[in-house]
Amino acid sequence: MVTASAAVADQGGIGFWLPGQYGSFVAVAPSPGWLLPNLYYHYTGSAGSDHPLPRGYFLATGLNGSFDGLLVVPTYTFDTTILGARPSFSMAFMPAYSSSSADIRIGPLSGSRSVSAFGVGDLYPAMKLYWTADVHNFMVYATGDISTGDYSADRLSNIGIGHGAIDGGGAYTYLNTKSGTEASATLEFTENFENAATHYTNGVDAHLDLGASQFLSKNFFGGIVGFYYQQLTADKGQPASLYLLNPRV
Question: At 142, is the secondary structure helix, strand, or coil?
Answer without folding.
Answer: strand
